[in-house]
Design brief:
Low-confidence stretches: 4-8
Structural class: alpha+beta
Shape: globular
Number of helices: 7
Strand order of the largest sheet: 1-8-7-4-5-6-2-3
Order of helices and strands: HEEEHEHHEHEHEEH
Distance between the termini: 39 Å
Protein backbone atom coordinates (compact mmCIF):
# COMPACT_ATOMS: atom_id res chain seq x y z
CA UNK A 1 0.00 0.00 0.00
CA UNK A 2 1.38 3.43 -0.97
CA UNK A 3 0.70 6.35 1.35
CA UNK A 4 1.30 10.04 0.62
CA UNK A 5 4.52 11.27 2.24
CA UNK A 6 3.47 14.57 3.82
CA UNK A 7 7.11 15.55 4.42
CA UNK A 8 7.68 15.53 0.66
CA UNK A 9 4.20 16.81 -0.28
CA UNK A 10 3.20 18.96 2.74
CA UNK A 11 0.14 20.35 0.96
CA UNK A 12 -1.17 16.99 -0.18
CA UNK A 13 -4.24 15.68 1.60
CA UNK A 14 -3.55 12.61 3.72
CA UNK A 15 -5.41 9.41 2.84
CA UNK A 16 -9.03 9.24 3.94
CA UNK A 17 -8.70 5.72 5.32
CA UNK A 18 -7.04 4.34 8.47
CA UNK A 19 -3.51 3.00 8.73
CA UNK A 20 -3.51 -0.68 7.91
CA UNK A 21 -6.14 -0.48 5.16
CA UNK A 22 -5.53 -3.05 2.41
CA UNK A 23 -4.78 -2.01 -1.15
CA UNK A 24 -8.12 -3.18 -2.54
CA UNK A 25 -9.99 -0.73 -0.32
CA UNK A 26 -7.46 2.06 -0.94
CA UNK A 27 -7.72 1.63 -4.71
CA UNK A 28 -11.51 1.65 -4.64
CA UNK A 29 -11.52 4.69 -2.35
CA UNK A 30 -9.20 6.62 -4.66
CA UNK A 31 -11.54 5.90 -7.55
CA UNK A 32 -14.50 7.02 -5.46
CA UNK A 33 -12.67 10.22 -4.48
CA UNK A 34 -12.18 11.04 -8.15
CA UNK A 35 -15.90 10.52 -8.77
CA UNK A 36 -16.75 12.69 -5.76
CA UNK A 37 -14.49 15.47 -7.03
CA UNK A 38 -16.13 15.23 -10.45
CA UNK A 39 -19.53 15.53 -8.77
CA UNK A 40 -18.31 18.61 -6.89
CA UNK A 41 -17.22 20.22 -10.14
CA UNK A 42 -20.54 19.40 -11.81
CA UNK A 43 -22.44 20.92 -8.88
CA UNK A 44 -20.34 24.08 -9.14
CA UNK A 45 -21.10 24.36 -12.86
CA UNK A 46 -24.82 23.94 -12.22
CA UNK A 47 -24.70 26.58 -9.46
CA UNK A 48 -22.97 29.00 -11.84
CA UNK A 49 -25.63 28.38 -14.50
CA UNK A 50 -28.33 28.99 -11.89
CA UNK A 51 -26.79 32.31 -10.90
CA UNK A 52 -26.61 33.30 -14.58
CA UNK A 53 -30.34 32.84 -15.21
CA UNK A 54 -31.99 35.80 -16.95
CA UNK A 55 -34.50 37.84 -14.92
CA UNK A 56 -37.67 35.99 -14.00
CA UNK A 57 -41.15 37.57 -13.97
CA UNK A 58 -42.32 40.23 -11.56
CA UNK A 59 -44.82 38.86 -9.04
CA UNK A 60 -47.92 40.40 -7.57
CA UNK A 61 -47.54 41.77 -4.06
CA UNK A 62 -49.65 39.00 -2.52
CA UNK A 63 -51.25 39.51 0.86
CA UNK A 64 -50.52 36.73 3.35
CA UNK A 65 -51.63 36.32 6.95
CA UNK A 66 -49.15 36.15 9.79
CA UNK A 67 -49.19 35.89 13.57
CA UNK A 68 -46.81 36.94 16.36
CA UNK A 69 -43.17 35.85 16.27
CA UNK A 70 -43.89 33.88 19.45
CA UNK A 71 -45.61 30.72 18.25
CA UNK A 72 -47.23 30.27 21.66
CA UNK A 73 -49.23 33.45 21.07
CA UNK A 74 -52.26 33.17 18.79
CA UNK A 75 -52.98 36.89 18.54
CA UNK A 76 -52.73 39.39 17.10
CA UNK A 77 -52.72 38.30 13.48
CA UNK A 78 -52.10 40.70 10.65
CA UNK A 79 -51.82 40.96 6.90
CA UNK A 80 -48.33 41.00 5.43
CA UNK A 81 -47.45 41.67 1.81
CA UNK A 82 -44.98 39.46 -0.03
CA UNK A 83 -42.55 42.35 -0.33
CA UNK A 84 -42.69 42.87 3.43
CA UNK A 85 -41.64 39.29 4.11
CA UNK A 86 -38.16 40.26 2.86
CA UNK A 87 -37.67 42.57 5.82
CA UNK A 88 -34.35 44.32 5.24
CA UNK A 89 -32.99 41.68 2.86
CA UNK A 90 -32.66 41.77 -0.91
CA UNK A 91 -33.52 38.09 -1.29
CA UNK A 92 -36.07 35.71 0.20
CA UNK A 93 -35.65 31.95 0.47
CA UNK A 94 -39.12 30.46 0.61
CA UNK A 95 -40.20 26.92 1.36
CA UNK A 96 -43.61 25.96 -0.02
CA UNK A 97 -44.93 23.57 2.63
CA UNK A 98 -47.39 20.93 1.47
CA UNK A 99 -50.23 21.67 3.87
CA UNK A 100 -53.61 21.88 2.16
CA UNK A 101 -56.46 23.97 3.57
CA UNK A 102 -58.39 20.87 4.66
CA UNK A 103 -55.40 18.83 5.90
CA UNK A 104 -54.82 18.14 9.59
CA UNK A 105 -51.04 17.70 9.26
CA UNK A 106 -48.34 18.97 6.94
CA UNK A 107 -46.45 16.63 4.64
CA UNK A 108 -43.87 14.73 6.75
CA UNK A 109 -41.19 14.97 4.07
CA UNK A 110 -41.72 18.73 3.75
CA UNK A 111 -41.53 19.02 7.51
CA UNK A 112 -38.20 17.18 7.45
CA UNK A 113 -36.79 19.78 5.07
CA UNK A 114 -38.08 22.65 7.18
CA UNK A 115 -36.60 21.03 10.30
CA UNK A 116 -33.23 21.25 8.54
CA UNK A 117 -33.67 24.88 7.49
CA UNK A 118 -34.72 25.75 11.02
CA UNK A 119 -31.58 24.13 12.40
CA UNK A 120 -29.30 26.34 10.29
CA UNK A 121 -31.50 29.44 10.40
CA UNK A 122 -28.95 31.72 12.16
CA UNK A 123 -26.47 31.01 9.36
CA UNK A 124 -28.98 31.52 6.56
CA UNK A 125 -30.09 34.83 8.06
CA UNK A 126 -26.58 36.17 7.54
CA UNK A 127 -27.43 36.15 3.83
CA UNK A 128 -31.16 36.06 3.12
CA UNK A 129 -34.64 36.30 4.53
CA UNK A 130 -36.19 32.88 5.15
CA UNK A 131 -39.87 31.99 5.42
CA UNK A 132 -42.27 29.06 5.14
CA UNK A 133 -45.54 29.53 3.29
CA UNK A 134 -48.48 27.14 3.16
CA UNK A 135 -52.10 27.27 2.07
CA UNK A 136 -53.40 25.89 5.36
CA UNK A 137 -55.30 28.40 7.51
CA UNK A 138 -52.98 30.38 9.75
CA UNK A 139 -54.06 28.87 13.12
CA UNK A 140 -53.50 25.32 11.89
CA UNK A 141 -50.21 26.26 10.25
CA UNK A 142 -48.91 27.93 13.40
CA UNK A 143 -49.99 24.97 15.52
CA UNK A 144 -47.96 22.72 13.25
CA UNK A 145 -44.94 25.01 13.44
CA UNK A 146 -45.25 25.02 17.23
CA UNK A 147 -45.43 21.20 17.32
CA UNK A 148 -42.27 20.96 15.20
CA UNK A 149 -40.44 23.57 17.27
CA UNK A 150 -39.85 26.04 14.43
CA UNK A 151 -39.15 28.92 16.79
CA UNK A 152 -37.78 31.99 15.04
CA UNK A 153 -38.80 30.82 11.58
CA UNK A 154 -41.16 33.16 9.76
CA UNK A 155 -44.46 31.41 9.02
CA UNK A 156 -47.07 32.88 6.66
CA UNK A 157 -50.32 31.54 5.26
CA UNK A 158 -51.32 32.02 1.64
CA UNK A 159 -54.84 30.79 2.33
CA UNK A 160 -57.39 32.62 0.20
CA UNK A 161 -54.83 33.80 -2.38
CA UNK A 162 -53.75 32.57 -5.81
CA UNK A 163 -50.09 32.64 -4.82
CA UNK A 164 -49.57 28.85 -4.77
CA UNK A 165 -51.19 28.36 -8.15
CA UNK A 166 -49.45 31.35 -9.71
CA UNK A 167 -45.95 30.19 -8.77
CA UNK A 168 -46.77 26.55 -9.63
CA UNK A 169 -46.57 25.38 -6.00
CA UNK A 170 -49.98 23.83 -6.53
CA UNK A 171 -51.34 21.45 -9.17
CA UNK A 172 -54.49 22.33 -11.14
CA UNK A 173 -56.56 20.00 -8.92
CA UNK A 174 -55.45 21.89 -5.81
CA UNK A 175 -52.87 19.35 -4.65
CA UNK A 176 -49.99 21.15 -3.01
CA UNK A 177 -46.52 20.84 -4.52
CA UNK A 178 -43.35 20.77 -2.38
CA UNK A 179 -40.92 23.37 -3.64
CA UNK A 180 -38.33 25.96 -2.74
CA UNK A 181 -38.19 29.41 -4.29
CA UNK A 182 -35.73 32.26 -4.26
CA UNK A 183 -37.20 35.72 -4.83
CA UNK A 184 -35.45 39.05 -5.30
CA UNK A 185 -36.56 42.49 -4.19
CA UNK A 186 -36.43 45.27 -6.76
CA UNK A 187 -37.50 48.46 -5.08
CA UNK A 188 -41.07 47.87 -3.95
CA UNK A 189 -41.52 44.96 -6.39
CA UNK A 190 -40.67 41.26 -6.15
CA UNK A 191 -39.08 39.31 -8.98
CA UNK A 192 -38.93 35.55 -9.24
CA UNK A 193 -35.36 34.24 -9.46
CA UNK A 194 -35.51 30.46 -9.09
CA UNK A 195 -37.79 27.62 -8.00
CA UNK A 196 -37.06 23.92 -7.59
CA UNK A 197 -39.75 21.34 -6.85
CA UNK A 198 -39.02 18.12 -5.00
CA UNK A 199 -39.36 16.18 -8.27
CA UNK A 200 -37.45 16.67 -11.50
CA UNK A 201 -39.20 17.35 -14.84
CA UNK A 202 -38.96 13.64 -15.65
CA UNK A 203 -41.02 12.85 -12.55
CA UNK A 204 -38.10 11.41 -10.64
CA UNK A 205 -37.63 12.41 -7.02
CA UNK A 206 -34.59 13.93 -5.24
CA UNK A 207 -35.10 17.37 -6.81
CA UNK A 208 -34.09 19.23 -3.66
CA UNK A 209 -32.31 16.49 -1.72
CA UNK A 210 -29.07 18.47 -1.70
CA UNK A 211 -30.80 20.99 0.58
CA UNK A 212 -31.33 18.44 3.36
CA UNK A 213 -28.51 17.04 5.52
CA UNK A 214 -30.64 13.96 6.22
CA UNK A 215 -30.34 12.51 2.73
CA UNK A 216 -26.68 13.38 2.44
CA UNK A 217 -25.90 11.59 5.70
CA UNK A 218 -28.04 8.56 4.84
CA UNK A 219 -26.19 8.26 1.52
CA UNK A 220 -22.96 7.87 3.51
CA UNK A 221 -24.24 4.85 5.45
CA UNK A 222 -23.58 1.27 4.32
CA UNK A 223 -27.29 0.64 3.71
CA UNK A 224 -27.93 4.02 2.08
CA UNK A 225 -31.34 5.64 2.29
CA UNK A 226 -33.27 2.59 1.12
CA UNK A 227 -36.98 3.20 0.82
CA UNK A 228 -37.23 5.12 4.11
CA UNK A 229 -39.77 7.91 4.22
CA UNK A 230 -40.01 10.57 6.90
CA UNK A 231 -43.00 10.37 9.22
CA UNK A 232 -44.95 12.56 11.60
CA UNK A 233 -45.23 9.73 14.14
CA UNK A 234 -41.86 9.96 15.92
CA UNK A 235 -40.37 12.67 18.15
CA UNK A 236 -38.54 15.45 16.31
CA UNK A 237 -37.96 18.02 19.04
CA UNK A 238 -35.00 18.35 21.42
CA UNK A 239 -36.67 15.98 23.90
CA UNK A 240 -37.24 13.23 21.34
CA UNK A 241 -35.83 9.76 22.06
CA UNK A 242 -33.54 9.93 19.02
CA UNK A 243 -34.57 6.55 17.62
CA UNK A 244 -33.90 2.94 18.51
CA UNK A 245 -30.11 3.23 18.68
CA UNK A 246 -29.97 5.92 21.33
CA UNK A 247 -29.63 5.05 25.02
Amino acid sequence: MTEVDLTVHPKAAPPSWPVGTDEAYATARRSLAAAEQDLRDRIERVAAARRALPPGPLLDDYRFSEGPADLDQAEPTHEVRLREVFGGYDTLFLYHLMFAPDATEACPMCSLWVDGFHGVLPHLLRHTAVAVVAKAPLPRLRAWARRRGWTGLRIVSSNGTSFNADVRAEYPDGTQRPMVSVLRAEGDRVRHFYSAPASFPDGGERGIDLLSPVWNVLDLLPDGRGDWYAGNDYPTGPDGDGGPGRR
